[in-house]
Design goal:
Layout: H1 6-20, H2 28-35, H3 39-51, E1 55-58, E2 64-67, H4 76-84, H5 107-123, H6 126-129
Antiparallel strand pairs: 1-2
Helix pairs in contact: 1-3, 1-4, 2-3
Length: 156
């Protein structure tokens, strides 16, 4: 299974919360209450997201954290990279990290897979993450010929 770590998942949840009301500053305490994520975890993630430039902070009674850009301008790929590093499902996406890199016949294909995933997550923004998900279309049932319509072999 390909999977983000839990902190990255929580980071996306926090940023999606900001994206729902981008003009308002939200405190760590309020974020914890809204999302159910423990406050120490929220604080840790806010520091990382602030350092990555995805958030801005303001002190004072009306202070808190807010998105540094409009939600439409923040790709999910940027969020994942800020929390996990380079986006790749294999080490092939990070040159010099695999001892088999030079002779690996699968590497070009894994690079293509990594590129497709990165491209898809780069097109998905925080604004889109706030919208209710539409039901996935049902998988189309392949058209299988009925038993009677299958060609029959003729015995000779």
């Amino acid at each position: 299974m390909i999977r983000m770590n839990k902190l990255t998942d929580y980071g996306v949840v926090l940023l999606t919360t900001f994206a729902r009301d981008p003009a308002q500053g939200i405190s760590a305490r309020e974020l914890s209450a809204r999302t159910g994520i423990p406050q120490p975890t929220v604080v840790k993630l806010l520091k990382t997201l602030l350092k990555a430039g995805l958030l801005v902070s303001q002190r004072g009674t009306k202070g808190g954290y807010a998105l540094s850009r409009a939600p439409e301008e923040v790709p999910v790929a940027t969020v994942i990279e800020a929390l996990e590093g380079p986006l790749a499902i294999t080490e092939c996406g990070m040159p010099g990290t695999c001892e088999h890199e030079r002779r690996c016949v699968a590497r070009p294909n894994w690079t293509a897979v990594n590129d497709v995933i990165h491209e898809a997550l780069s097109k998905l923004t925080l604004a889109e993450m706030t919208r209710p998900a539409s039901p996935w279309p049902p998988c189309p049932t392949p058209h299988l010929p009925s038993i009677d319509s299958r060609p029959r072999s003729v015995a000779t």
